[in-house]
Amino acid sequence: MNPARIRIAGALAFALISAVASAADYPAPKEGDWVARDFRFHTGEVISELRLHYRTVGNPSGEPALILHGTGGSGANFLTPAFAGELFGPGQPLDASKYFIILPDAIGTGKSAKPSDGLRTKFPKYNYDDMVEVQYRLVTEGLRIRHLRLVLGNSMGGMHTWLWGENIPTSWTPWCPWRRSPRPWRAAIGCCGG
Known about the structure:
- It is a single chain.
- By secondary structure, the chain is an alpha/beta fold.
- The chain has a single domain, classed as Alpha/Beta hydrolase fold, catalytic domain (Rossmann fold, 3-Layer(aba) Sandwich).
- The chain is 26% helix and 23% strand.
- The protein is built from four helices and six strands.
- It is globular, with a radius of gyration of 19 Å.
- It starts with a helix and ends in a 16-residue tail after the last strand.
- 35% of the residues are buried.
């Protein structure tokens, strides 16, 4: 093998190992399911029990932060060395010793209720408003949180974040969508709210 290729491969391996090694430790996530009873969708359809799966990191007495995933993902997407290892560790921006991080799976994704669970075509038609409403109910009814310190979302979660900012009382701030805009033809990164 070419010595230059060996050096390049060695440098890449070192860089990858260093990146993983530099990711901080954070508390083990806890998983749970919350059921919204008699949930009414935007269509007027009602489902007697709508299951929303979620993960939390940190102590429930910490400042609550809601992080929303993209299309086809789940809250588990954020439990990687590249995300949680860089944000949730001691002294990091969302230090789990100070923040209570909530990572829900949206309707239709992850371990939350979805048409393929059995109802198939009888599952109510849902949209982003429904997804945000059940997230709000998880936070307020399920976790009994009155005020979020932060709502952060990427991709589809970014669209949900815009809806949190628009539809949820102004006490729920700040909110920060990334890689999404209320105008679909334009990408946006930025934080809004107070």
